[in-house]
Amino acid sequence: MTDRAVMLVTGTSRGIGLGIAEYFVERGYTVCGCSRSAGTLDSPHYRHTVLDVADEPAVRAWIAAVARDLGRIDVAVCNAGIVGSSLMLSVTPTKTWDEFATTHMRGVFLVCREVSKVMVRQRGGRIVNLSSPAVAWHMPGAAAYAATKAGIEEMTRVLAAELAPAGVTCNVVRPGLVLTGTARALGGDRAASMLDRQTIRREVTIEEICHVIEFFAAPASTAITGQTLSMCLIG
Ligand SMILES: NC(=O)c1ccc[n+]([C@@H]2O[C@H](COP(=O)([O-])OP(=O)(O)OC[C@H]3O[C@@H](n4cnc5c(N)ncnc54)[C@H](OP(=O)(O)O)[C@@H]3O)[C@@H](O)[C@H]2O)c1
């Protein structure tokens, strides 16, 4: 049990997820994170579990343990994701598709389903899923990435409808470009072409992403559900 609000975040070993965990630990949350590799955040208010979000028994056990040990889950952020690019006619699209579908769609489905059980029981909670502006860009090479992120968005809207009677809200944030290690590995041309498509043509900071999560999680946001907020972009 803890007096602090409890936030679950997936994909916290590095990048945006690590930044989200750090930000909310500093603002009074107990944060429970996960990733396939070891955790890197050292804080008495952070606990890390090594798991793959697509591993059903592991996700069930993780979320049940958090609810049992801490008493509740106030906010869940599905951030874990993979970044990559592959043309449909290249030799590897099936492998690429399976990786994206497994991590993004199966992973978000499992985490949302298990968290929903806890939030319905406690009659309230907030789910925030990370998508991407790539959903609207039709960029060559992004079929698997963009389609599975679009799937997350629609999954979130349906979940919002299902969970509204229980006082649980479900929303999506589409961050603008953040040059995490993975995003950098895509190459300078790719990053430049993404910035060119943004209305506000600069990187976003992880703090700015956290501000959107904070907005969706705020007590005054009980009437906001099923929404997708695009950063740096109109629409
Ligand atoms: N960076 C951007 O410009 C940008 C823009 C829009 C949206 N996004 C989205 O924001 C999220 C984070 O992106 P990022 O740039 O921070 O990526 P990142 O630096 O590659 O970090 C991804 C995190 O997810 C974890 N992860 C990946 N697959 C996982 C799995 N199957 N199970 C558990 N954890 C897993 C990784 O840890 P392990 O590898 O150890 O598992 C890592 O902690 C992604 O969903 C991405 O699509 C990013």
Task: Tell me what the structure shows.
This protein has 235 residues and is α/β, with parallel strands linked by helices. The protein has one domain: NAD(P)-binding Rossmann-like Domain (Rossmann fold), CATH 3.40.50. The protein is 45% helix and 16% strand. Strand 5 (125-130), helix 4 (143-163) and strand 6 (168-174) form a beta-alpha-beta unit. Helix 2 (56-70) runs parallel beside helix 3 (93-122). The chain is globular and about 50 Å long. The model has no long low-confidence stretch (mean pLDDT 95). NADP nicotinamide-adenine-dinucleotide phosphate (NAP) binds next to helix 1, strand 2, helix 3 and helix 5.
Which characteristics define this entry?
globular; seven-stranded parallel sheet; about 240 residues; 7 strands; binds NADP nicotinamide-adenine-dinucleotide phosphate; single chain; about 45% helix
Question: What top-tier CATH class fits best?
Answer: Alpha Beta
Instruction: Say which molecules are bound, naming each kind only once.
Output: NADP nicotinamide-adenine-dinucleotide phosphate
Number of strands: 7
Q: Classify the secondary structure makeup into a structural class.
A: alpha/beta
The radius of gyration is 17 Å
Please provide the ordered H/E string of secondary-structure elements: EHEEHEHEHEHHHE
Task: Indicate the percent of residues in helices.
Answer: 40-55%
